[in-house]
Amino acid sequence: MAAIMEETRLLLADSIRHRLVTNGLSVAGVENDLPQQECGTADDMMDKARQSLRHLCTSLYQNHQAQFDDMLQKLHIEPNTLHDDLETIMADVFYDQV
After folding, report:
1. Coil, strand or helix: which one is 8?
2. pLDDT tens for residues 79-92?
């Protein structure tokens, strides 16, 4: 179970880092410890998962860009409302069960 959680964490960090880099933003402080693998290695499935997640995140953003932009404009996060705000955002983002 711990190995799956670690792989998930690494995939998420890679996806966030990829999104920042493709938008020309700073990646300082974002983990980059997911090793780059060559095709045909034992970790070929991890590389496929990384590429799929990158593609999925890009497609999700492109398909819902207007909604994301609208949410960002409305977003006013304070420490005491963070949980409720994020819960509302996730409900809005995944209302169509993407």
Report:
1. helix
2. 677 777 777 777 87
Q: Are 56 and 90 in the same domain?
A: no
> Measuring CA to CA, how many Å separate 98 from each of 23, 62, 63, 64?
23, 13, 10, 11
Which residue range is the domain that position 22 belongs to? 1-63
For 42-67, write each residue's pLDDT tens digit. Answer: 478 888 888 999 999 889 888 888 88
Residue 70 shares a structural domain with residue 46: no
Please list the alpha-helical segments (H only) found in 23-96.
44-63, 65-74, 82-93
Do 15 and 45 fall into the same domain?
yes
55, 63 Cβ separation under 8 angstroms: no
